[in-house]
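Kindly draft a polypeptide, keeping tokens residue-aligned:

***
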Amino acid sequence: MAMLINRRAVLAVGAGAAAGLALPGLAHADSHHTPSVGFTLDAVTLDGGEQVTGVTLDTSRLGPIDPASLKTSTFSVHAKATLPIGSTEPVYDLDRPVTAIRLDHRGRIVLSLSHAEGQTGGATLGYIPGKGRNFRLDLTYTITQNAPIALRHGRPVTISRFVPGRLANPEVDAFSHHVSGSGMKYRLYTPARSPRHGGRPLIVWLHGGGEGASLPDNYYDNETTLRANRGALGFATREAQQIFNGAYVVAPQSTSAWMQDGPRFAPLIHEIVQEVVRGHSVDPERVYVAGCSNGGYMSMKMTTVYPTTFAASVPICGVVASLGDGSPLIPDAELAAISTPTWLVTSLDDTTVDPQANTVHAHNLIPGSSMTLYDNVVWNGHQFPGHWSWIYVAHNDPSIDGTHIWQWMAQQRR
């Protein structure tokens, strides 16, 4: 029995070894059949997007399991993914190889699944070109037990059914859900410790075009901003939190795309900044804005509309040039008037947003700005599309004269 994972409730259901079926090799006169075991899908947001990297079976109530009885062949995992709108054809429909199996400290069985950047079959998001958006996939995970497991006293156990769980991504789950007074959704990371004196910095992350809502499809999930890439998550890592001495990270989600109406979105983003500053221990002198692509445009736009709000701006592969109607998204006079310290980042092989007409052009106009130009986007040996230069910022890679971009941001005060 396999059931659908609802893309909003994010449930997962699998089939047990003896879910009403007599499967070969599992009939055993002395085998004890448990009624059911729940499981969760374990996910990680890679640079190329979120993937399901493992499955945790809640076997803790079965009693102490003999780890020697666990082999990678004990369980099989099958995954099927479909888009929530449009085509009903599967995005993928395949077996997920189990690469490792272990018991965690709570006595749960953890299955590690094969995964890698660009590997088919683990993604939780699907991009629809006609919509220009990433959508959370509807996932069907089927688990089959191929051999009994043994408890330490020797009794073999066969699980008869696997029960719905959830998609667990600790980095994403660390961001709380919020809705502003004007109705814009956002996620917020709160640092582990409150300051003894003063407030913490606040980093505003503005997503790319693919992570906005699609209101005509009734799709406004407040999730893809943290699952499509590591732009916001990078600032919540231990390394970043140490550099900023504990920072809040806020990730608003546009109701469409920032570039569709930047002047209208600017006060809505500013409202969220004010809400977070008022409601938390935030130092208003240390509010930073960063964003990629659409969000790179919006990060610059925010510093033109609110010149005294941000201590620093990091536009990544941002758009300032005309989209075809002859008028620039951000006029040269506005770029030349930006007074917020700005560090721009892009890759020269970006075929989505022309680096010369946008990032280089903006750098030449924004007074005192810095710029990092990469030849391409390669991280951990994997080459990504040239547009994805936000990956470098998510890993604090850009540096000038020995100062990396996170350290530079942390040094800025309004």
Observations:
- The radius of gyration is 24 Å.
- The longest helix spans residues 262-279.
- The CA atoms of residues 238 and 246 lie 9 Å apart.
